[in-house]
């Protein structure tokens, strides 16, 4: 296999992974250099871009789950914005380990989105998932389990690569199905935004749902 051409390609390499074990290994191996590679070298700013969509709906006293928390980049942004009750969940124990050094999370959960979680029903006021969902990452059918753990009236915000969420695709179909069966209501779909300072062509979208 060709080595990734640059650091953004390394992130995209995860898109070629075919199963959860490979995904976990990819992030376990990347954990030590993830922050340096993304934040410092290519200017990863999806957490900063997502923040205003979150603060608009979720008060700082809320209990929040950061699903696919990685090394804690979103957690850090949330803490700086005043959130003090944030928990982390990830498939990669190494990503969780690195996030713990930042002291932004009150609890850490090793779990696989797309499979049943050991978290209690209605445990959280809000959930945020940044870069967590995608064809080789958390699948569309994971939404249902996330809805279960967020209180009715609470909010669920996630971002996805714009090219991974086409109209008529599996994610859109599932999002609409859950709205139709009254599990959640779409509150806001953001315009496309750049996720990297170094590469303006990689576009993302944010979605905010309220649990019904
Ligand atoms: C692109 S990183 C984003 C990390 C962090 N949210 C950020 O913005 O820096 C994706 C994260 O989601 C986690 N992840 C991907 N698929 C997952 C799944 N099915 N279950 C749990 N975690 C998953 C990965 O281990 C990784 O830490």
UniProtKB/TrEMBL annotation:
Q: Which domain of life is it from?
A: Bacteria
Q: Which UniProt keywords apply?
A: Methyltransferase, Transferase
Share an example GO biological-process annotation for this protein: methylation
Tell me yes or no: is Methyltransferase among this UniProt entry's keywords: yes
Protein source organism = uncultured Aureispira sp
Kindly indicate whether the keyword Transferase belongs to this entry.
yes
Q: Which residues form the Methyltransferase type domain?
A: 65-158
The record's annotation in Pfam families points to: Methyltransf_11 (PF08241)
GO MF annotation list: polyprenyldihydroxybenzoate methyltransferase activity
Record's protein name: SAM-dependent methyltransferase
């Amino acid at each position: 296999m060709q080595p990734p051409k640059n650091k953004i390609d390394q992130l995209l390499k995860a898109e070629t992974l075919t199963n959860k074990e490979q995904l976990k290994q990819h992030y376990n191996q990347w954990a030590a250099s993830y922050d340096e590679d993304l934040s410092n070298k290519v200017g990863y700013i999806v957490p900063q871009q997502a923040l205003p969509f979150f603060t608009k709906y979720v008060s700082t006293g809320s209990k929040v789950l950061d699903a696919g928390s990685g090394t804690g980049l979103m957690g850090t942004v949330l803490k700086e914005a005043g959130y003090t009750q944030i928990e982390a969940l990830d498939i990669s124990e190494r990503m969780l380990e690195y996030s713990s050094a930042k002291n932004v999370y009150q609890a850490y959960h090793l779990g696989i989105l797309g499979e049943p979680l050991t978290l209690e029903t209605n445990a959280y006021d809000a959930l945020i998932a940044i870069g967590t969902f995608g064809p080789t990452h958390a699948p569309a059918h994971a939404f249902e389990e996330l809805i279960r753990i967020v209180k009715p009236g609470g909010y669920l915000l996630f971002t996805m690569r714009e090219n991974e969420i086409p109209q008529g695709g599996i994610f859109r179909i599932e999002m609409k199905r859950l709205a139709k069966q009254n599990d959640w209501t779409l509150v806001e779909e953001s315009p496309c935004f750049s996720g990297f300072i170094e590469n303006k062509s990689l576009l993302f979208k944010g979605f905010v749902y309220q649990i019904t």
